[in-house]
Design goal:
- The structure is a single chain.
- The chain has 1 helix and 12 strands.
- By secondary structure, the chain is an alpha+beta fold.
- The chain has 2 domains: 34 residues; 134 residues, Jelly Rolls, CATH 2.60.120.260.
- Strand 3 and strand 4 form a beta hairpin.
- The longest helix is centred in the first third of the chain and has 30 residues.
- The protein is elongated.
């Protein structure tokens, strides 16, 4: 059997199309298999993926606990892709039941945040879950910025304490 240029070119196109289809299937399966990525910190050591709470002066680092002395405070979490949702868990103590809100930075103005009220707490640590739509979230240097605001925390003898933060990004 003699292979002509036309047959060779046809075979070449078939191989290229099959390789592209295989690559596309690999990407789809990888995206579905991963489903998302998550990060967690209990503030015992610096994290490569979670920076915060900051700025210095508003936050005091205790052993495994972040003490919020003034507001607002921020944290940034690395995002390796354009995920659609952030599922956040925050464990905190708000003994004085200070009004507080937690949220995600939005695109646009400097002070554009989507904020959700923290539930009133007791003298014990409580865990609260949030779900944020990231379609309008600001992504800067592959990081998503979150904020905790409590207008009365600076004037209060009681402070807000945070001992755990976790986020799961999902497609």
């Amino acid at each position: 059997m003699k292979i002509t240029f036309e047959k060779f070119f046809l075979l070449f196109k078939i191989v290229i199309i099959a390789a592209m289809a295989l690559f596309f299937c690999f990407l789809v399966v990888k995206k579905l298999a991963i489903g998302g990525v998550g990060y967690e910190t209990e503030f015992n050591a610096p994290s490569k993926f979670i920076q915060g709470f900051y700025p210095e002066g508003r936050v005091e680092q205790l052993v495994g606990i972040q003490k919020i002395d003034n507001e607002p405070v921020y944290l940034e979490v690395y995002s390796p892709g354009k995920f659609s949702t952030a599922k956040v868990q925050l464990r905190y103590k708000n003994a004085a039941r200070l009004p507080a809100r937690f949220g995600v930075k939005l695109n646009g103005a400097d002070w554009a945040f989507y904020l959700v009220d923290l539930a009133g707490a007791s003298n014990d640590f409580v865990e609260q879950s949030f779900e944020f739509d990231l379609s309008m979230a600001e992504r800067k240097n592959n990081k998503i910025k979150f904020m905790l605001a409590s207008p009365l925390v600076g004037d209060s003898q009681e402070k807000i304490y945070i001992d755990k933060f976790s986020v799961e990004y999902v497609w």
